[in-house]
TrEMBL record:
EC number(s) given by UniProt: 4.2.99.18
PANTHER family: A/G-SPECIFIC ADENINE GLYCOSYLASE/ENDONUCLEASE III, ENDONUCLEASE III
Cofactor: [4Fe-4S] cluster
Function: DNA repair enzyme that has both DNA N-glycosylase activity and AP-lyase activity. The DNA N-glycosylase activity releases various damaged pyrimidines from DNA by cleaving the N-glycosidic bond, leaving an AP (apurinic/apyrimidinic) site. The AP-lyase activity cleaves the phosphodiester bond 3' to the AP site by a beta-elimination, leaving a 3'-terminal unsaturated sugar and a product with a terminal 5'-phosphate.
Protein name as catalogued: Endonuclease III
CDD domains with a match to the protein in the record: ENDO3c (cd00056)
Entry-linked InterPro entries: DNA_glycosylase, HhH-GPD_domain, HhH_base_excis_C, Nth
Pfam families xrefs: HhH-GPD (PF00730)
Protein origin, superkingdom: Bacteria
Boundaries of every HhH-GPD domain copy: 39-186
Note on cofactor: Binds 1 [4Fe-4S] cluster.
One GO MF term attached to the UniProt entry: 4 iron, 4 sulfur cluster binding
Lineage, highest ranks first: Bacteria, Pseudomonadati, Bacteroidota, Flavobacteriia, Flavobacteriales
Organism, scientific name: Christiangramia aestuarii
Entry's family note: Belongs to the Nth/MutY family.
Amino acid sequence: MTKQEKVQFVIDTLNDIYPEIPIPLDHKDPYTLLIAVLLSAQSTDVKVNQITPKLFEIADNPFKMVKLTVEEIREIIKPVGLSPMKSKGIHGLSEILIEKYNGEVPANLDALEELPAVGHKTASVVVAQAFNIPAFPVDTHIHRLMYRWNLSNGKNVKQTEKDAKRLFPKELWNKLHLQIIWYGRQYSPARGWDLGKDIITNTIGRKSVINEQLKKKK
């Protein structure tokens, strides 16, 4: 298979498995999505979805959020981890959104990355899912799978994102990054990986990765 045929195989397989793709984090607008994605750093979407209803009941926009103290925010979000940094970030970015953007979340990657506690991945998720601007946010699942599928060298997430954007058509990025995340969770996890169920890696995967996995099974 050529690289282009491998890419097409990935696209076709993911479209078969996930014709409709749910967004993993519960939210109702760009602001609540931004907060949910920020909270999901080094945490699980399940945990974040348990915490955000309580937070958004009290403060679901920047004007309400700044009325809370950093400590009050921290108390609510504590279960997701990194709460000191995240609570300061949430309070700080809410102030900036009010001062610079009339309380609206900017539909701009660079502007989002300037906000406290908002990294490139968080900003990419927000522009993709809230504003439908093509982006390819790379999380641990995408980074792992792009390496397993021999579509990237696995050096770092920056390189993986560059490779993904080069290989996959731009109009598919927003859907595809979610499809790969779901596939990674269900069929190609980091732990408890059953190669027999992982049709994509089985078909196009990096030989060294497949051989190592087969050795483990023996």
